[in-house]
Design goal:
Blueprint: H1 2-10, H2 22-27, H3 37-53, H4 57-65, H5 73-79, H6 91-105, H7 109-126, H8 139-157, H9 163-172, H10 179-187, H11 193-199, H12 203-222, H13 228-246, H14 261-283, H15 290-299, H16 304-307, H17 315-329, H18 336-342, H19 353-365, H20 368-381, H21 386-399, H22 403-421, H23 424-438, H24 448-456, H25 467-480, H26 486-494, H27 504-520, H28 543-561, H29 566-574, H30 576-587, H31 599-609, H32 615-630, H33 632-639, H34 643-661, H35 670-688, E1 701-703, H36 713-734, H37 745-751, H38 758-771, H39 778-793, E2 800-802, H40 814-821, H41 827-847, H42 853-859, H43 862-875, H44 894-897, H45 903-911, H46 914-919, H47 929-937, H48 948-963, H49 977-993, E3 998-1000, E4 1006-1008, H50 1015-1030, H51 1047-1058, H52 1065-1084, H53 1088-1091, H54 1103-1119, H55 1128-1143, H56 1148-1162, H57 1164-1172, H58 1174-1188, H59 1195-1210, H60 1223-1234, H61 1239-1246, H62 1254-1273, H63 1281-1297, H64 1324-1328, H65 1330-1336, H66 1343-1348, H67 1352-1369, H68 1383-1386, H69 1391-1405, H70 1417-1422, H71 1436-1448
Parallel strand pairs: 1-2
Antiparallel strand pairs: 3-4
Helix pairs in contact: 6-8, 7-8, 7-9, 12-13, 12-14, 12-15, 13-14, 15-19, 17-20, 19-21, 20-22, 21-23, 22-23, 25-27, 26-27, 28-30, 29-30, 34-35, 34-36, 36-39, 37-39, 39-41, 41-43, 41-45, 47-49, 49-50, 49-52, 55-56, 55-58, 56-57, 57-60, 59-60, 60-62, 61-63, 62-63, 65-67
Length: 1456
């Protein structure tokens, strides 16, 4: 049979073993044979096998065609030897030739074409290749391959090409095959990469081949070859195919040819690349080596650009998750104990940059929740490489702020599960994760010490549920001891777990073990620093070096808080060896003390006052400092810092800031910027010498001195670097994009300022804005304005700021601090304030264009926005015009950052901006009338930007055109002039009471009255008050009000009620300031405010008079009076008003008489004041009266004249005048006159009193007592205490001589019709100190009078008891001689001596008093509650009295 001969024929052997030609073989087959389909199929298969077995296809074709066809098109096609291979042959002709040759061979044309094309590809790739590009084609090869692929596309389009056969043929030449040729076959759709991979017989072999080629490809891409774009496209296509096919859903793998092969190959290649990278990183790849370049390029495939079109599928996310799993589980050779020892080396800053880049790219595709969940899943199911896991944790907390809480929650679950079932693995995982996250600093995660205290430092800790849990905890901690860093052992010892007393042995055993381990490591717990760094590379620091760092940090905390740090206080008690041996010597290093005490001096003094410095050590320090002052050069050498210590960290910080500036122009590089900011944070911490473990430094409130902000030189330099970098970055970023498209760099940058460095940043901002603002350039102003916005963005996590005295102690949020730093009292500062507000508000509107108005308000304080409104309206009259819809402008950030910024145009553009106008409708940022007044009062007219005329025009517009007609809901007055006046007066009072009315004196003390506000505002009040007088209801008699009187008194009353009550110094001073301001306001207003505009005979005392009298009796008597009289200004103002109102009535003399007659009972202080100031009052009153009336002065005014004349005549040598009535008025006049007499003549002049009436003498004695007390209460008063005491003694001697009773003066009551009026003349403090005056006259008491007066003993005992009460309450300190007074004054009895003498006097007096003198003793002693209890001991004389009375006089009721 013929079919059985085919194999033999194909052997090519003829008879005799001669090799026969192809023609000879076919010679016997010319005869036509009958068609057999089965035979034909077998023949085709044999032909195909023949073609596949041949190595030289050209020779075979030559045998078929003969020599004459040697240069046919097919030979040229296969040869591809020249660029003219297809120049003379069309694709159709080539296709026809291929069909013809295939039919001659009897094989399918598709198989034949595929074999030919594969052979051609092999010949092209086998040509000499550029050794620098082992996977890429040369230019010539690329041309030849392109021609070949054109033919392949033609035959493929005409169904003359078998892809399967082509793939099989291609893999036979795998070793010479170039990767670019394979990629071009895929790109030009000859055969896809998937088909090629499916056809390979060896999956591992093709995986290894692809891995080698991909490594070469990555290396060439990084080498920046001329065909890098082709290489990148190749890499992208390969990676996309691998990811898409290797990580697709199982349901998608529905292929007829081994569907599982391609995913396996894809996963194998990707895994080989990752393992290669991880091995290289573990071995320590050298930078710029070929391996480093390969890894850098390969890690770039994880970004969105490389993944391209498949990014929207789920395959990339599954690929990233798989990559993370491989990273976590690759080479798990390290045990948990190794991780405990080595994890400090795996922090984010020490991580290899390539690994950091890989993590950042993986984080883009996966959310923080997915990342933490995946980590948890891997740790629960597989063995892990702890270095990779913990480095991943560091990267996670640095790159994702929200990861902190996710890790805390996960750790909490791990701890709960661990203690629930004693799972050691969960415990190890939790501790390692927490420690690793804590290494990244407090901005990323809480410190380990904080976490350990929170977890185990209370009864609610994880270990508190049972003894089993306690044993488990201490067993775990004990097992860790051999591997622990000394830092962690110190934390466990210093902050031990809270343990019930019955299980205390567990804790003591662990602490003993930990201390033993520290001793083995030669680390002393006693020498541990106060602010140790748990993440430092070294294990321990020399105690002396650590002590120097502790001192600097403690001083910094003290400067910011004003208190001794808690850490220092604890160390002085619980860690005394280190505190005494290292900390105090480092603190008390001798130096030349500064003239103005600095923070170090204040800190030392605070420790000394708290008895935390041994006296001997402090004395030694003081002597050494004195010696240092004598030898300043040597001392300077002792304290000079080595500049090289600070230059290196500052240089590194500068370099890190420069790197960030290069990235801020690309808003999409969030991961790069996040990494750079993390590096900046670490470099900043190193530059400032801060510890990463700042658990004991928690600044709840920042102490800031606005008036004199000070920074250490190192802090000053570092913060200036930060602020300068921020401003420069903003300018750089703004040059390419508006704020809303600048990315998150500013937010991340500002976040580095929100930690330990924040106090220094705010202090520097205070220096710049408050003291150097006008000198700042436009870029500085723009940068600091943007900084203010981003600090406001983080306001919820920032501590409050205490700006110090004399402001209130209530802390300010950071955004409101900027409002306080921006002063505008002068022209330059006002213009700077406008620029800053414009910059800050414009930036916030541009940065957050789509945010709600509430968010915008939260970034900036309402006060800053109100200041901007105030300044625009004040400086630009065009802004005062109503805006129309057409006026609304768009806001552009570009004009602001240009060097020639036109601030006026920018401010007006912002003013008319639509969003800003909407913002002003928010209630919190509306500038009300009250706000405007507070702002305007800050202006100092003498240095104002406006002229006097411009300022007056502005005031008139603001009050009468803007706020007065405005609705109250919008901050106006509803057209009510009285409301406008009320708000103005309250604003004046508030300004006067605020710190803004203080200035600094030369001795650095706060003094009152340095700035009283814009005086033009007072003028506006006068104008409005005059208008109100003209608007008075004509139905009400002029000057009268049916119920309320003048509105001013209502304001005064409400404000006084709101003040803190009490007799404390602070409350008294505040009340005094308030009343002094009341008086100033009253003096600026018409005198009719005090009295009314006219009087009526049936009601001489108007409502306004009643209000004024009440104010005098209740308040001014205690604050504004001196020596029994009001000040001259308010007295004169009242009498001018009295005459003005009286002269408008029908009978002016009658009205004056009626009015002053009422004053004798209702407000006698007015009359005594008139007597004191009569010499200066009389000319003005006479002129005012005689201008309107020709009649003599009214009778009551004549009485004042007569009283004053009597006093003058009485002191003349020869005259003996008769005292006019009333006697108390004459006594007051006489007392005031006596003050003018020299001390040597007082006794002589007072001898005339023997002839005066008894009543006059008693009143004079009272005024003399008031003078005595005033001389003690008022330093450097004109009549000194000695003269005042001499006057009292002389008057008392006269009273005793004439046997006139005077004891009633020491028992005054309001109901006393004869003497009760005196209580409304004397201040309450004087009345309260009458016991002091009583016993100051002890030497002047006549012994017979003491025995004769039945009431003397009762009064003496009462005064003694009250004197002791005054001493106990501290009230006698006001009359103690101050240290600065003269020696003569200091020689007087102090309160203690006075009490001693009084006690001796009573002890001598009591036994000698007759029985009748004890009749009222019980009543007197019952009024003394401090000694009314059985167990309390009364003062000595009272005890003697209580002991004597029942025995001697049978009065058993006298039990004290």
């Amino acid at each position: 049979m013929s079919d059985s001969r085919v194999p033999n024929s194909s052997s090519g052997q003829g008879p005799g073993g001669r090799r026969r030609s192809w023609a000879e073989l076919l010679a016997g087959r010319v005869k036509r044979q009958k068609y057999n389909p089965e035979r034909a199929q077998k023949l085709k298969e044999s032909a195909v096998r023949l073609l596949r077995s041949r190595q030289d296809l050209s020779a075979l074709l030559l045998e078929v065609e003969g020599l004459q066809c040697k240069k046919s098109c097919l030979s040229n096609l296969i040869d591809c030897g020249s660029s003219e291979a297809h120049a003379n042959h069309s694709s159709s002709f080539i296709g026809s030739a291929l069909q013809d040759q295939a039919s001659r061979l009897g094989v399918p044309v598709g198989v034949f074409s595929a074999t030919m094309v594969a052979s051609g590809v092999g010949q092209i790739c086998a040509a000499p290749v550029d050794p620098s590009h082992p996977v890429l084609l040369t230019v010539e090869q690329r041309k030849k391959l392109s021609s070949l692929l054109d033919v392949a596309q033609y035959v493929l389009a005409h169904n003359m090409f078998s892809r399967l056969s082509f793939c099989q043929e291609l893999w036979k030449i795998q070793n010479s095959l170039l990767l670019e040729a394979v990629w071009r076959l895929h790109v030009q759709s000859i055969v896809s990469l998937q088909q090629l991979l499916e056809s390979h017989p060896d999956m591992r072999g093709v995986g290894a081949w692809l891995f080698r080629n991909l490594c070469c490809l990555c290396e060439q891409i990084e080498a920046s070859c001329q065909h890098a774009d082709v290489a990148r496209a190749m890499l992208s296509d390969f990676v996309q195919m691998f990811v898409l096919r290797g990580f697709q859903e199982n349901s998608d793998l529905r292929r007829t040819v081994e569907p599982e092969k391609v995913p396996q190959v894809a996963v194998d290649v990707l895994q080989r690349m990752l393992i290669f990278a991880l091995d290289a990183l573990a071995a320590g790849v050298q930078e710029e080596s070929s391996t480093h370049k390969t890894l850098r390029c390969w890690f770039d495939v994880f970004n969105g650009h490389t993944l391209g079109s498949i990014i929207s599928t789920d395959s990339p996310k599954r690929f990233f998750s798989h990559t993370l799993t491989q990273i976590f589980t690759h080479s798990p050779v390290l045990k948990a104990s190794d991780a405990v020892q080595m994890q400090r080396e795996w922090s984010f800053a020490r991580m290899h940059p390539l690994l950091t880049a890989l993590y950042r790219r993986l984080f883009v595709m996966l959310s923080p929740e997915e990342l933490v969940g995946h980590l948890q899943e891997v740790l629960e199911t597989q063995e892990v490489n702890w270095q990779r896991v913990l480095s991943f944790v560091s990267a996670l907390v640095v790159c994702f702020p929200e990861a902190q809480q996710l890790l805390k929650d996960w750790v909490a679950r791990l701890m709960a599960q661990a203690f629930e079932s004693c799972q050691l693995d969960n415990m190890v995982t939790a501790f390692l994760v927490v420690r690793q996250a804590a290494l990244e600093g407090p901005s990323a995660f809480q410190s380990y010490a904080d976490w350990f205290k929170a977890s185990f430092g209370s009864a609610r800790g994880y270990h508190g549920c049972s003894k089993k849990a306690l044993v488990f905890l201490f067993k775990f901690l004990s097992d860790l001891v051999p591997f622990e860093s000394p830092r962690y052992l110190q934390v466990h010892i210093l902050h031990p777990p809270l343990v019930p007393s019955r299980y205390r042995s567990l804790l003591t055993d662990y602490i003993s073990l930990a201390k033993t381990r520290l001793a083995d490591l030669k680390v002393s717990i006693e020498n541990m620093g106060l602010y140790e760094d748990l993440s430092s590379a070294g294990d321990i620091t020399e105690p002396h070096s650590q002590a120097l760092q502790d001192v600097e940090k403690a001083i910094m905390v003290f400067e910011h808080t004003g208190k001794i740090p808690v850490t220092v206080m604890e160390a002085s008690i619980f860690r005394r060896p280190y505190y005494v041996s290292h900390f105090l010597p480092a603190l008390l290093t001798p130096r030349v003390l500064p003239k103005v005490p600095d923070s170090r001096v204040a800190f030392i003094e605070s420790l000394k006052r708290a008895d935390k410095i041994p006296p001997s050590l402090y004395s030694t320090y003081c002597r050494a400092c004195t010696t240092a002052e004598a030898k300043p050069e040597d001392a300077a050498l002792g304290v000079r810092a080595d500049p090289s210590c600070a230059e290196e960290p500052l240089g590194q910080l500068t370099a890190a800031l420069e790197e960030l500036r290069a990235s801020v122009t690309n808003a999409s590089q969030y991961d790069v910027i996040s990494t750079q900011v993390a590096v900046i944070s670490e470099r900043l911490r190193a530059a400032l010498g801060h510890s990463e473990d700042d658990s004991s430094i928690e600044i709840a409130k920042i102490q800031l001195s606005i008036d004199a902000p000070r920074l250490e030189p190192r802090e000053h330099t570092a913060v200036d670097l930060l602020l300068t970098s921020f401003c420069q970055n903003l300018m750089t970023a703004s040059s390419v994009a508006p704020p809303e498209r600048q990315g998150p760099w500013a937010t991340l940058f500002v976040r580095t300022m929100c930690g330990r460095v924040l106090p220094a940043v705010l202090t520097r901002l205070c220096q710049l804005l408050c003291h150097q603002g006008p000198s700042l350039s436009a870029p500085h102003i723009l940068g600091l304005g943007a900084l203010a916005v981003h600090l406001g963005e983080s306001r919820s996590v920032l501590p409050e700021v205490d700006v110090g005295p004399p402001a209130a102690t209530v802390g300010l949020p950071v955004p409101e601090l900027f409002e306080n730093l921006l002063t505008y009292r002068t022209r330059d500062s006002l213009l700077f304030c406008l620029k800053f507000c414009t910059a800050a508000i414009s930036y916030s509107l541009c940065k957050f264009p789509s945010q709600s108005l509430g968010v915008l308000c939260s970034c900036l304080s309402s006060g800053l926005i109100k200041k901007f409104q105030f300044l625009v309206l004040r400086l630009f009259p065009e802004a005062r015009q109503p805006l129309s819809q057409e006026d609304a402008a768009s806001l552009s950030w570009r004009p602001l950052y240009l060097p020639s910024a036109d601030w006026q145009r920018a401010a007006l553009s912002l003013w008319t901006h639509r969003t800003f106008r909407e913002l002003l409708k928010e209630e919190d940022v509306q500038m009300t009338y009250r706000d405007w007044l507070h702002l305007e009062l800050e202006i100092r007219p003498e240095v104002d930007a406006l002229s006097d005329t411009e300022r007056q025009d502005f005031h008139q517009w603001a009050i009468h055109e803007h706020f007065l007609p405005e609705a109250s809901a919008s901050g106006g007055c509803d057209g009510d002039l009285e409301t406008a006046c009320t708000i103005l007066v309250n604003a004046l009072m508030d300004f006067h009471q605020s710190s803004r009315s203080y200035v600094r004196s030369e001795n650095s003390d706060w003094v009152l009255g340095g700035h009283t506000g814009n005086q033009d505002i007072i003028s506006r009040l006068q104008e409005m008050a005059a208008d109100l007088e003209l608007q008075q209801d004509p139905s009400v008699p002029p000057g009268h009000s049916s119920s309320q009187g003048h509105f001013l008194y209502g304001i005064f009353h409400r404000r006084l009620q709101a003040l803190i009550s009490g007799r404390g110094v602070a409350a008294s001073l505040q009340r005094q300031r308030e009343l002094l301001m009341y008086k100033r306001i009253l003096l600026r207003l018409p005198s009719s405010v005090l009295c009314g505009s006219s009087f009526q005979a049936h009601q001489p005392i108007t409502a306004r008079c009643e209000q004024f009298f009440h104010l005098v009796n209740s308040e001014m008597r205690n604050i504004c009076s001196h020596r029994g009289a009001l000040t001259q200004d308010i007295t004169a103002h009242f009498f001018r008003g009295l005459l003005n109102a009286s002269l408008r009535s029908r009978d002016p003399s009658l009205m004056v008489d009626l009015m002053l007659a009422q004053c004798q009972t209702k407000c006698p202080l007015i009359l005594t004041s008139a007597l004191l100031w009569w010499p200066s009052l009389e000319p003005g009153l006479l002129c005012q009266w005689r201008r309107r009336c020709q009649s003599p002065l009214p009778r009551e005014l004549q009485r004042l004249q007569e009283g004053r004349q009597f006093a003058s005549d009485f002191l003349s040598p020869s005259a003996t005048p008769q005292a006019p009535n009333p006697a108390w008025l004459s006594a007051a006049a006489l007392y005031f006159a006596i003050q003018q007499v020299g001390e040597e003549n007082v006794r002589t002049q007072l001898k005339k009193l023997d002839c005066e009436r008894e009543e006059l003498l008693v009143f004079l004695f009272f005024f003399s007592l008031m003078g005595l007390l005033s001389s003690h209460l008022t330093p450097n008063s004109a009549p000194g205490p000695l003269k005042a005491l001499d006057v009292c003694a002389a008057v008392l001697e006269c009273l005793e001589k004439r046997k006139i009773s005077w004891l009633a003066l020491f028992q005054l009551t309001e109901s006393d019709t004869r003497l009760g009026c005196l209580l409304r003349v004397a201040p309450d403090q004087h009345t309260r100190l009458l016991p002091f005056a009583f016993y100051s006259l002890l030497s002047s008491f006549h012994e017979d009078a003491a025995m004769r007066e039945e009431a003397f003993l009762c009064v003496a005992v009462d005064m003694y008891l009250k004197l002791v009460q005054l001493f106990v309450a501290g009230d006698t300190s006001t009359v103690s001689p101050p240290a600065g007074r003269s020696l003569e004054l200091q020689g007087q009895d102090n309160p203690v001596d006075l009490i001693t003498k009084a006690r001796l006097f009573l002890l001598q007096l009591i036994p000698r008093c007759p029985k009748k003198n004890f009749s009222h003793i019980t009543e007197v002693m019952s009024r003394c509650p401090p000694w009314g209890h059985e167990k309390s001991q009364p003062p000595g004389p009272c005890a003697r009295l209580a002991g004597m009375t029942p025995l001697s006089y049978q009065h058993p009721s006298l039990v004290v």
